[in-house]
Structure formats: structure tokens, C-alpha cells
Structures
1.
Amino acid sequence: MADSHDCRSIRNICILAHVDHGKTTLADHLIASSGGGVLHPKQAGRLRFMDYLDEEQRRAITMKSSSIALQYKGYSINLIDSPGHMDFCSEVSTASRLSDGGLVLVDAVEGVHIQTHAVLRQAWIEKLTPCLVLNKIDRLIVELKLSPMEAYNRLQRIVHEVNGIVSAYKSEKYLSDVDSILAGPAGEIGDENQEFVEDDEEDTFQPQKGNVVFVCALDGWGFGICEFAEFYASKLGASSASLQKALWGPRYFVPKTKMIVGKKGLAAGSKARPMFVQFVLEPLWQVYEAALDTNGDKQILEKLIKSFNLSVPPRELQNKDPKAVLQSVISRWLPLSDAILSMVIKHMPDPGSAQSFRLSRLLPKREILDGDFSSSDVIAEAELVRKSVEACDSRPESPCVAFVSKMFAVPMKMLPQRDVNGGIVNNYIEGGNGDFDECFLAFARIFSGVLHSGQKVFVLSALYDPLKTGDSVQKHIQEAELHSLYLMMGQGLTPVASARAGNIVAIRGLGQHILKSATLSSTKNCWPFSSMTFQVSPTLKVAIEPSDPVNMAALMKGLRLLNRADPFVEVSVSARGEHVLAAAGEVHLERCIKDLKERFAKVNLEISPPLVSFRETVEGESSNPFDKFKSLTGNSNCIEKTTPNGRCDVRVHVLKLPDALTKLLDESSDLLEDIIAGKAMRAQDDEHPVESLKKRIWDAIESEISDTNVEKDKEKLKLLWENLLKRIWALGPRHVGPNILLLPDSTTEDNGFSVLIKCSPYVSERLGFVSNSDELETETTSAETQSLKEEANSLKSSVLSGFQVATGSGPLCDEPMWGLAFVIEASISPVSESEAVHQSDQYGVFSGQVMTAVKEACKAAVLKKNPRIVEGMYFCELNTPTEYLGPMYAVLARRRARILKEEMQEGSSLFTVHAYVPVAESFGFADELRRWTSGASSALLVLSHWEALAEDPFFVPKTEEEKEEFGDGSSVLQNTARKLIDGVRRRKGLPVEEKVVQFATKQRTLARKV
Ligand SMILES: Nc1nc2c(ncn2[C@@H]2O[C@H](COP(=O)(O)OP(=O)(O)OP(=O)(O)O)[C@@H](O)[C@H]2O)c(=O)[nH]1
Ligand SMILES: [Mg+2]
């Protein structure tokens, strides 16, 4: 029973894989055998029970994760099926957070793909115990027609590859642990680290250990090595344990001596095959041949049925379709659900042992810095809660803690009409906001204690801190009453009165309190669970408006509901007042819009073309790295602006940051935000965020310096960079972007008559590049200069805002700037007597003038230094049969793709191609590809990086050669960079320079002739 008192009989698992590798098909068979009769075995594999949404069935891909409770040999197994499509990868995060084990599926024909990497990583991050399922073994026999030996080599290669991926994560973690130990204060290596050191040696997935199975989900059969080991034990006269070790790898059976030997033990010229081939694959191949070949030996099937005592109804054996006969025999010989579920029970941990292992990820130990005694009670209780999560304590008196990983909407009519006691419930009472058609349920796992329907709990957001009191914290904690609890059976919901620690449930009644995820707790003195990590962020944005403006309110309500129902969608209002919907990709977007139209808003909508975002930067540097620094000094390299009242002179220099540094600043924006706000000091784990970031900044710079060949230059460059890093005032836009505001060089001094607006290198201080104890200026100055200095001091924020605004919208098309460092020297001079009289109002507030001047100067500085447009790039993985390579390359070429790698997949006619495709060109890409290749190619896109276009958007042919090649400029086709810029400008309503009619005279003469 799911409500069993002992959590040792529970397993919470999810199925993870690349798209189409067969997760939902596998789930079908497990449900048919152990789902309590919700699915007839005949339909298993074809129905796709867990894909219950219409859109999922129509497209034949899973779009959300959903859970089902299975009963197997006294165990209660909560199985979560997850989607494999990139657009829904957030659902993989929500599924793995609630599970303790992950069945990682790999298609034996297609092998490891990008999402396989991604799900292995997710499992690793969430500390799941993984098992490997090699699916679609039938395709090796029927489609690829491999010999058993070839099939073995392929399987071995896949296992090896998957092990390689996991061991890379292990060593990465191991290395970073070692780093933090070296960087941190002297101490012992914790338990956790120890475990990585030990484990590092051994492959994670080993068929002989029993955590790898070979299956065909479509036909419902599968096996692990142990099934065969047991069977052959009596036949070969060996123990099944020793056979299990020998049935994988280079182990050979010598019939004469009845010995198992390694390769060396074989006689020269021996034709022996590895035991896995001889004893496992060959019989399997024979059965397939016997059943499917027209003149196959049908006796083999009969022998099989006899020797294994299989009860196959004669009716099924007489079926005319040889495939159906094969399936009924082989699925009884090697039942899929037994192979999988016995592995789950044996190799995956129960909630108790899993939670103690996963604790450091779920509820990381907090370092309490300020030893405030008044909070010691809170700390003690929070520690108690943590202990009870660690033990998965399911006693009713222990603190109750659950984690909600997502909210999902179900139509009201789908809710059970009867409560636990069989009484009729009126589901429509609750709702509160008038959304009567949809009901929001929380997808949750209980980590400690017991949850009852009707219970009151605290809902903690990820930012909640039990040690803080006051209003700022109050908004992160709410009290809520759980309306009802359900066990999930895919789409079906079974009401339960209570559920214990270790179970996965759906909770009703939290719709008003939780937006996406939250921690539930019976006590206020509890830390919230750590946030989930998502592989990508939603990048595909469109503006939405109702076809009829009258329906605006319905759209807004619809967007609000959608935002709640989809863990990954983002809804916002743009600066221009448009409602912007951000989704992970085209398929996701399409589903969101369908949901909006049909469920949440129920009105017709107008959808804009995708709003692609760009960045703006300047041309890369020349080969001499010192040029970069030269551009920071001197008059010729700078832009000067003066405020309208003539009192403030602004000089701006701009420099392009090394790409690696830009990328680092961009990626670390969350961390930087914390560091700048002074919040990152409390390390959650054993890492030192500031130190490690500092080190990475240096690494980024050093990778640029290392391009220089001369050793002396390297030293010099290093010094120059050191100097720059000590001068960081701010980052931008919005204080954490990839652009840097540098203070003027210390040699730039006030020139007696005007005063420089200066600040302390605030960000450098926070990052620890300079110490905070800056000496204060002590020189004595005249009263006049003193007041000027005070004024300069008050204008600091204007300079800063000017920089923030400029980096937020560049000169090309108002898009944010990318990887630039600005040195802004703004100096103010005293008001002269004559001006003072009519000064005050004429030009507006002085601070505003300074801000505008700084902003204008920054933008002009970018324009002067050969501006370039930067576009987002997708990493794209394509799989195409050889005959469609031509059309595929044509599609890629039309979309400015850059091919990185092309590789024939061994043993199949599939080509795998890796390419970068610009985001701006990616819309409709998958569709076009499908059309041109008759659906034979598939492509998956993952957002990869930002890349500057080398083209000059303002290119006009100047030299003779250029004119020869491009004409005199009037008839030159606009280059791509210019086209992109103009596209964005048009969308934003900014002026665009356009030649509407180029040769009017010629057109007229033509017309006359007719
Ligand atoms: N030949 C063969 N085909 C299979 C097998 N398992 C699944 N398939 C087919 O593979 C396709 C995809 O199966 P699904 O179960 O929908 O795959 P999935 O992993 O759930 O896909 P997503 O949820 O969209 O990521 C279907 O057409 C299945 O019939 C198998 O063992 N052999
Ligand atoms: Mg699926």
C-alpha cells in the first residue's frame, strides 16, 4: 500500500531520456502489469497512457511530467514519466526533484544524444540513483540486421559512453571539491567528498552489477544479466553469481573444460564469442529469426515455450501475423515489467536512505554567521526539521515537510466527484477568483511527517529565512489550508485522507498561494528547500494581444492562469506595454497559445512574430593586445560631450572585454547580484563564491593574455589588467550585466578649475580586488572647491544611471550592450557669475543633464568604434538518413548555420550533424527541415552562446576593389547585420533609413515605352 507504515517499501522513480527514446512506451508496460488494471496489457505500448493531453497524443511527444502509483510484489512504486523534448526540459527538473531514482533510457540504435547528456546531468545534480535501460534492441535485429557480435559491440559502446559522461560529472565535482578544500580553511574532507574519491574508480553502469537492462519497450520484453545467469546456472553447472560476473565483458566459455576464461585463456585461433553473445544474444536472435523469417524453424518457438513453461494461449500462437506471435511468446519469456521493476527494487534506494543521501542537495547546511542568541531556538528547531527530513521520519508527531515542484491545472470536471469516504463533494465551492473551469493542483512530495487534508501548513518561498523577522520576510511565508490530497494515476486522481513521508501526492487548495514551486512546512522554523536548476531559460518571446480589444481582461486573466499552470513559461509586460510571453521553444510556445485560446483565456488572439533579442558591441581588437589599452587614453580615442549649461564635460573611452570574461559576467549574473548586494557571504555549501568567481575572472583574462607570445608582454598585460580590475565602479545594464564601468585612471586629476566626479571602485571592493579601506582625501582645499566637490559627489548617481541606461539600450537598435568597458571622466566646473542669473531653469535639472550627456557620450563612443551586432546562437543537433543530407544542408545554408561536426553513426545509415544556428533564423526551422526531408530528419536546438556578426552594418564600398565587387553603394544589397538592425528598429518604431524608390527615372522611361 502507498500508505504503508514502512517507507522501505516505497520507491520514487522517474524515466529520463532523449526525445522519442521510448519512455512513455516503457511506462505503458509497467502500468499494464502493475497499475491495478487501468491499462489492458494488449494496449500497452500503443496507447501511451501517460500522454493523456490531446496535444501530446496528436504530436506523439510527451509535454509534461506526470506520476502514477504502481504496486509490485508488495512495493509501492511512484513512477514519473518525463518529456524528452528540449522545450519541456523544465519538467525533467521538476520530475527529478521528486524522485530518488532515475531510469535513464537510451535508444540502442540512435545512441547517446544531447538530451541524454542533459538528463544524466540533471540526475547527477539532484543526486538520483540512476539505472540504465537500453531500449529498442529489436531494431538492432530487425532494422539494422546486425549480427549478435556487432550488436554486442554497439551495446558495449553505449554503456561505455554513458559511463564516460557520468564519470566526467563525478570528476568535475571531485575537482571542484578539491579546489574548495584547497581554497578554504584547513579542515577535513567531509563524508561527501570521501564518497567521490572512492567511487571514482568504478563505472556507474555495469550490466554485471544488475543496473543495466536491455529491453524492447514496444513489444514488451526485456532482461538483465541476472535473468540469464539464473537460467544457465544449472545448465552450465556454475553458480549464478559467478555467471553474472561473466556474462558481460571479454569472458569466454570453454565447453571442453567447462571453464570460464579471459581472452588469454583461449586457445589460439579459437572462434569463441564472449559469453554475452553466445548465451544471451544468439538465442534471442534465433527466436526472432524463427518467428519472423518465412522459412524460420518454428520448432524453436515451441521448444522455448516448453522449456520455460510459458502459458501462451493457443489462439495467440495461431495468429497470422508472425510479429504478433513473436510478441506473445517473447513478452512472456522475458517480461519487461519484471526486468525493470525488480531492478528498481534492488538498485534504487527507498525514500529513507535516499533522503539522507540527497539531503546536502535538498536542504544544504546553512552556515550561521552571526551568533545571535535569540535565534538559537529557531536554529535548533530548523536543525530538528532537517534531521527528520534526513531520516524520512513518517511518524505523525514529527514535523511535516513537503516540496511542491510544480503547479498544474486540471479541468474541474476531471476532479473526483467522491471524497475518501465515498461522500459526494461539491468541487465548485472553492476557487475564490472565479476560475471555475480549472483547478490548480500542487505536484508534491512529502519529505517528513504526515499530511492530512484540511491541515494548515506554512508555504515558504525559496527566499524565506527563518532567522529574519519583519515585513521583508513576511511576504515569503504564507499560511494555507490543504483542501484535499490525491494519489495520482496519470490523469486519474484518487482522494486520500492523509499521506506519509516518502510519498508523491497532488494537493488541492494551494492555487492561491504558490506560483511555481514552494516548500510546505508545519513549522515556521524551517529552511526552504534549495531551488531547482533548469537547463535553459525561456528564450522564445512573442507579444500577444486579443483580436478584439474588448477581451483584454480575459487575456490578462488567461495569462495569469497560464503562468501558474506552466512551470516554465514567463509572462511580462514590455516597456512598450505589450504582453510578452516567453517560452522554451516553438513546440512549447504553440502549446501555450493553444492552452490560452482554449482553456485559460478562451478568446481569439493575435500573436506577433518572435521578438528576438540582440546585443550590441564594438569590433574586436587588432592583433596587438596593447592597442586595447591605448584606446583607454588619449584624446583621439574618446568622445566628448558637454551638458547644455556648459558646466559638465564628459569624456568617454570604450574598450572591448575579452569574450571569455563577457561570458563569465553574463553567466554569473545571479551570483554577482548577491555579491554586489553583500549577500553572498554566507556560503551555502562548502564553496567560497567570491573567491571562486575572482579566480574565474582571472582565468578568463589569462586565457586572453596567453595568446601573446612574448613573455615580457604577458607580464605587462597582466599588470594593466590588474590595474583595470581595481577600478570597477559598476556593472551594467541593471547593475549586473556583462558591461563594466571603470573609474578614471588615478592619473586623471582635477585640473585646478574643474572637479572630477569620482566614486570608489565599489564592485572591485566587493569582489576583493581592492580593500575597502580607501584613504580619504585629506588635502585642504578652498571653500569654493570644497562645495564643487560636494556637488560632484551628489552627481555620482547621474553618471551611474547614464551608464546603466546606455548599456541597456545601445545606439544600433536599442538593444543591450555586450562586453564593453567604459571609462567615464565627467568633470564639473563652477558656475560663472554671468551665467548664474539665468541658469536655473533653462536647461532642466543639472543631474538630468549630466545623465543624458553621459548616456549620449557612451552611445557615441560605441558608434565611433565600429559597432557590431551580436546575436544569440543555438547549438543544433540533427539526425538525417544519408539520402536526405543534400536537402538538410540546403535548409541549414538558408539559415546561416555553421556546421561544427558531421559524423556517420556506426552501423546505421544515420548522419549526426552538429551546427550553430542563429536564433533569428531558427523560427520554423524544425518544420522546414521536416518538409524538405519528408520527415526523416530531426533537429534539436539548445541555446548556446552570443556571437558578434563580423559584418559592418554601415559598410559602404570605398576602395576601388570594394566598388568593383559591391558596386558604388547605391545598389548594394543590405548586409545581414544591417537587415537585422533595421528589423528590430522597425519593430520598435525607431526611424529606419530606407530608400523607397531607387531609380525613379528609369522606371518612368520603362513605363513610357510600353
Ligand atoms: N522499434 C521500437 N520502437 C519503439 C520502442 N520503444 C518505443 N518505440 C517507438 O518510439 C517512438 C517514441 O516512443 P515514446 O514512448 O513516445 O517516446 P518518449 O521517450 O516517451 O518520447 P517523448 O516523451 O516525446 O520524449 C514510438 O513510435 C514508439 O512506438 C522499441 O523498443 N522498439
Ligand atoms: Mg513520452
2.
Amino acid sequence: MTILVPAKSVLRGISTLVTVDKQSSTPLYRQIYDSYRARILSRELPAGQLVPSSRELARELRVSRLPVLNAYAQLVAEGYFESRVGSGTFVAHLIPKSPTAPLSAVVVAGASRQGRSISALAAALPTYEAPYWADNLGPFQVGQPAIDEFPLQLWSRLVSRCSRHLQSSALRYGSPMGLAELRDAIANYLRTSRGLRCEAGQIMIVSGSQQALDISTRVLLNSGARVWVEEPGYWLVHHVLTGAGCRAIPVPVDTDGINVEAGIKLCRAARAAFVAPSHQFPLGVTMSASRRLQLLNWAHSVGAWIVEDDYDSEYRYDSMPIASLQGLDDNARVIYIGTFSKVLFPSLRIGYVVIPTDLVERFAALRQSMDMCPSAENQRVVAEFIRGGHFARHIRRMRIIYADRRRVLIEELERAFGDLCTIVGTEAGMHTTIVMRGSLKDQDIAVKAMQRKLLVSPLSLAYLGSASHQGFVLGFGNTQAAQIPEGVRLLKECLAG
Ligand SMILES: Cc1ncc(COP(=O)(O)O)c(C=O)c1O
């Protein structure tokens, strides 16, 4: 029931209605408060207007006086009402007159941006689309580890053990660099398994590689800086650079990795190069030793930075993992980024940056300005996972599983496509890429495949400039070997027309 109470007598000719619905689950005081607030914001109730006394309004609404008193107290506390002793309660003068009608939350959500200014950098970012990571989009989703093989029980035990031993001192803000025990464990791991030259003090824990890319960009680069990116390359590197106002210079990737000579011809004076030398995304190539040295020499000679994204190099199938570029660098020009998204699971949101010693303080200052410090809970669990030897065991076990999935995928692709495609980047990681011969348009095929609930990522989308190859990036991390033949068969059908 809605009771409409014309409060005209007190409002001196202004027809204002305060409405309450006694059946509603919204408390009465809140309805009265909302009703007044809306009328004040819409200027139906002008500043200086006397409002009915709480007793009078309660009588007219046929409610007790308590909800009215509560609503009035809230409106006074928030500055919508002013109470003058001996004179009554008035609509406050303080509310600045808005140039347009006030927008409700709903209208704001749906508003067009026209005439409502936002930063040029935010406007320049490509349209955000809800992530496609869903179960029913087939076997080739990129970037997904085998979550069904994750040792969930063990993880839950560590989570409960860590929370059982939680002390109140652990509830404080932490260091922007992260938890000391995790930084120690990572430094150890990187020195022994990835050939890095680093101390725990150089390691910052971040919320995945993505935050590491963002922080590194903000610390190292000014808006307008020109930056080498691999062509084709990782789309979210492009977004970070766009968001920071940097100019990405696409430098072609060949079988040895980024072509440094081509980069020098295109823009010798670039301020940085963003590369994934162990397992380039999406072509999967490993940067050769001579290219690594060439890249380091270039960076040293022009004073540029190298951002090394080492996102999935733990999984290498025919040799030991490739040593990092950072380990070769004598001039502290490399910022090394790693993540647990692939080796553990992506929702964990824990990654790390290895920072040259002289920049650690600037990285810490920037990180503090962003989000103070990483959340402590999961850091503790990851540290336990590494220290208990589970991490090394997990990687060994997963490498065998992925190797099998990769073998089946390659066999099926060779059988289905033969000479029609070249399979690249199979030495490492959890995806492989096929480069198609002929004149097909990979984006058209991907649309067709999507209609059949098969997600394939078109290679051409990974180019900033015009795509020199058409093909597909096929993830196999979260795909059981038995699902692969059917996925390849479907893809073949989509290619056939
Ligand atoms: C090239 C590349 N870098 C980094 C990542 C990992 O990102 P994050 O650590 O933010 O989950 C991915 C994930 O797919 C990737 O493809």
C-alpha cells in the first residue's frame, strides 16, 4: 500500500509528497529518507523550505514518530536538512545547484559518455568485453592451466593450516613489496631454476603479470615514449602501453625471436622493449642466444629497458627450461616478470617482478600509491607450497600431463591439416599456434567456429599492424587429451566451409 501524504500546509504551496509503503521490506525510516532526498536532489523541495515537524508527518503518514525522527536525523547528518532551534527543520542551503537534472544510479550506468569527460588514456583503451573463460567453449581456450589436475585437497589443507596459525599482527598493512617469506622462496626458486641473478630484496609480489606490466610501465616510461613490442604479440601488453600513453612500435618476430636489427631500423631510440624470450606469445618461439645478446647490447647502448615476460616457461618438453634473459644482463637493464597463473591457477592473482636494485624503492613507492600492498593470505599459502616441496613436484607432474596433451594435439593437427598449416611453438608452454597456408581469413573462421561453440583465437588479432600470417592460437592446458581429436575435427569442418 502506498500512502501519499500531501504536506502542502507546511510546504507553503509546494505540492510535495512523501510516500511510504507499509508492506514494503524497506524500513519506514529509509522510505521517508529516500523520498525527501529524491525531492531535494530534484529541486522539487527548494533550499530554505520548512519541512513538517516529525510529529506532524508521523500523524499524516499514520506511522509512529520513531522512523520519522530517524529519517530526519539522517537527513540532518548528511546535510540535506538544517535544524534551527525554535524555528523548525529546513531544506539545507548547502546543496550546490547542479547544472543538469541529477542522474540516478541507473541512468549513470547506462549513460553515454558524450559530453562527460574522461581521461584520453582511458578513452583510448579498446572496448572491454566480458571474459570468455567458460566451460562450454571447447578444448582450445588459451592461457588456461589444467585446473582439474590441481592438488585441491593439499591446497585446502595448507589454507586451513595457514589460517589456524594466523596471528593478529598478520592483519596489519604489509610491505608494498610483499611477504618476506614468499619473496625468499621465489628468489631461491628463480636462482636455481630460472638462472636469475637476484636477491629476495629485489622481488615484489604483484597481482599477476598484468600488474607487473602496468607497474613497470609506470615506473620506467613517460607518456609518449616509444616502445618495442613483439609483432605478433600479447594483446594485454598493447593495452598497458595504450593506457600509459606510450607508442608501441611493432617489431617482427622470426624463428630467433624479436628481430633486433629490424627494431633498430624502425626506432633505435625506443625507451623499452617488451619481450617474452623463453616462449614468445603467440608464436611460441624461443629467443636465440645471439638475439638475446643483441637485445641486451642495444638496451645498454641507448639506455633502454627490457621487460621480460616469463609467463609459462616452466613447461618445456624437449630440454631443460631456458635460462632467463635477466641472468645474462650485466647492466641491470632487465625487469623480469613471472606469474603463478599458469603453474598454479589464474584466480590466485599472484605474480612477481624482479627489479634492478637501484629501482626497488621507486617501484615500492609506485606500488604503494596503487594498492598499498598485496593481500597477505594467499602469499602465505604459496610460500608454504613452495617451501614444502609441493611446487617442484606439481611442476614435474604437470609437465608430463601437458606433454601428453601437446603430443595428441600435434598428431591430430598433422593428420587433419598436413601441409595446409605449419605448427609452431611446440617446445614449451600450454598453447601451440598453427599458421595456415592459402587465403583464408582466420577471423571469419573463428566466428563460424564460435557458432558451433568452439573457441579458437585468430592469430591475426595478435598483430598491431597488418597481419602477415593467418592462423589460430590453440590452448591445450585445460583440455583432456581425449577431447582434442573432436576439437580438431570441428575446426577442420569450419575451415572446409
Ligand atoms: C603472454 C602472457 N603473459 C602473461 C600472462 C599471465 O597473466 P597473469 O599473470 O596476469 O595472469 C599471460 C596469460 O595468458 C600471457 O599469455
